[in-house]
## 1
Amino acid sequence: MIKDIIEKIKKWDSIIIHRHVRPDPDAIGSQAGLKKLIHEFFPEKQVLLAGEEEESLTFMAHMDNIPDDEFKRSLVIICDTANTDRVDDQRYKQGADMIKIDHHPNVEPFGTTMWVDPTASSTSEMIFELYLEMEIKGSKLNEEMARLLYAGIVADTGRFRFPNTTGKTFYYAGRLVEANFSRPEIYDHLYETSLPLLRLEGFVLSEVNVMPSGAAYVYLSKETLQRFNVTSKEAAAIVNSFSTLKGLKAWVFFVEEENDIRVRLRSKGPEIHELAARFNGGGHPMASGASAKDWAETDEVIKQLNELCM
Ligand SMILES: [Mn+2]
């Protein structure tokens, strides 16, 4: 499969790389890291990054403005995205050929070439594997590529703590840090917190509801977010704030947004991605997202999460 991908990259002069909406560091890291990788070996090719710019991740990379007519003469590569609904910039459909590279469970196969590895910690890890396949012995690692892929791996493994971290992950990270980028700078960008967020975390820690089964839930209403001056998106950063609680198995954050309630599910026990799928969402077995249309529906999520934990 990796060989097929390399052949297609060789064949096309113009390549457009996409990733999922509401990008996280692995989405951007794999997308922009792949661009650096392609340019390392094929500097003459046009490689463009599609999708809306995410303010908090511009320290990683900026997106490109892509005219409509570029797509039909380009190879489209979609990174870190399980289903086509979540592809950022739906013009990907106009691409002349399509490749899917992803580490989420393959719930929706798409593309003429597909490389899906749910055992990989991150899509960034997979892009480094692609690099290893193309690597010329003795050549120096591209510093910018290494920085982007390292950031993606760090974020998706929770700094190498989540069970998706394997020997391979550590080996690749070891190779990546041979490049001369600043790790402290990455950590500052990814994990620096603000006073409002710190205060909200205090609220969450005191308000979390823990059930005897080991299931836990937290409500963040619009009023609460306003009171603490934190946006729904920013609040995503504290979803693991009580993950070390003894006896905890799985938990959910309900974050009220404009038209629905965002459901952020996490687990260190039962798999929760199927539960997420039942509520218009999806993701990984241990980290998923969904949405509820009203507070009554959140009761149903709690009920099903409780059952999973029993
Ligand atoms: Mn990912």
## 2
Amino acid sequence: MIYLDNAATSWPKPPGVAEAMLNCLEEKGANPGRSGHRMSLAAGKVVDAARASIARLFNIPDRDRVIFTLNATDALNMALKGVLKPGDHVVTTSMEHNSVTRPLYGLRKIVSVTKVPCAPDGSLEAGEIEKAVRMNTRVIVVTHASNVTGTVMPVREIGALARQKGLIFIVDAAQSAGILDIDAQNMNIDLLAMPGHKGLMGPPGTGVLYVGERVDLRPFREGGTGSRSTEPDQPEVMPEKYESGTLNSVGIAGLGAGVEFVHGTGLKTLRRHELELTRRFIEGAGKIPGMILFGPGADEERAPVVSFRMEGKDTGAVGAALDKWYNIACRAGLHCAPDAHRTLGTLESKLVRFSFSYFNTAGEVDFALQCLRDINKRDLPPANGGCNC
Ligand SMILES: Cc1ncc(COP(=O)(O)O)c(C=O)c1O
């Protein structure tokens, strides 16, 4: 299979991830941070090592502020619902994923939201965010890179603005963690939400929320932490304050190995390869008649995500043909980001998305281009599935 769906979850995982998970399950399978016996302590060490590795990647000074979550959605829910209070105003953008827009919609009876419109290529001027700030604005939340177009948002400028105005800055790094450089301190990020299973190359069911020192975040879930058990209140100590219940130590072991791979290979090397593939695809696809590409051009700053549609072809049918005829896994549909599709004008047509990883090759890109040329000349059977809305 040629796997071009890395923006959903990365595959394959680097060498070492499966081994780390198996080793954790078989050798260190006890409950981490609970019982005090040797196997429990060993499991705790695996979790702690992953925490330290993640802190190093994002220039987080205190590893205990790295909180393990289920995925990026879980981290964003913890951030938004833990910080917002009745009467607050939030500034966000028209390119957000449902993992930002739905929690905000869920809070609509107590908070007001301004969605700053982005340009038709998904780009955003930081100044537009500033114009939307009001007296009662408390939070700015933006995606670092769009999961539909790969557009990179001006996170550094927005962070500086947020700090200057005393606002809490939340970044959705679902498409940038392990892909773009992120320095939580220098970018003035207060809450950084990310999946463990995409660019960080860990297994599904892992995620992270960095909780900066300036934020007083209400815990999203309370319960057993293995510490201060007689106190009725959730302990204030980090990371337990936000990590009630048994952690996914096996998944975290895999995530730790994925992050070590990112460290070992180097973000620059990963990025160079991913960008080369993205550019190769954009340049090749631009020459296919009827191909309409969305987002920044080949030479612009971008994440390794490209969306397109083919004139006269049903998006779901293209996705299904790629899967069934050519064994190419991609994603076709609305990508859980209806606002982004409204911005691009593709809510009706939907889009096919290719997303590349370090493990894809130039040969795979060329083969995918050949398949699209072929599809372009053929009549497609009506989509039966293939589209993910
Ligand atoms: C921009 C963006 N935010 C959030 C998410 C949610 O990530 P997760 O599946 O880890 O919850 C995604 C997933 O694709 C995404 O692309």
## 3
Amino acid sequence: MTVTYEVGDGLYVNVTNRCTNSCDFCVRSVADGTYGELWLEREPSKEEILSALTEALTKKNYKEIVFCGYGEPTIRLDDILFACKKLKENPQNPKIRINTNGHANLIFGKDVTPLLAGLIDCVSVSLNAPDAEEYCRVCHPQFGKEAFTGLLDFAAKAKEYVPSVMLSVVSDSIPDSDIEKCKRLANEYGITLKIREYIKNN
Ligand code: SF4
């Protein structure tokens, strides 16, 4: 079971295959074997997540820890925060980021962003589209159109508790004109927009 893996100088953490989206470009649907080994036969327990992280951190210095894909990490928010709380006991440990689709408040039916305070240093929310219609067309969210306003609301609320919050789009999967619209939208919310290349994980 692959719980942690490296991307550059980051230690990435894989806690679930599950997701509330079904994006056209998702590695879960286009996996060619490069990341195929990340598919979890079963989800690691919170203790296994912590153990895998602790073991990896004793072997190498990483710039950051990133809870990312295969699936949507905040589906297991309680277990992630359990591990983060333990990791934050050692100030030498790297900063912690969550790459998310931003659906957490919809998943839990309440504002969970206060739970991130002091445990998560960065939240990167996948925007993927300039409006709800396009988001639904590309990401097929189980929450429907509400998912788009929900992720923007999540990002805005997270800013109160997390030092760094950004929205992101994948440059290869969105036309330039839509990227400009996303920039304007991010500006309206006072959130940085990160334009990234497709790296086959969330
Ligand atoms: S790209 Fe991310 S948000 Fe989209 S289906 Fe895959 S894991 Fe979910």
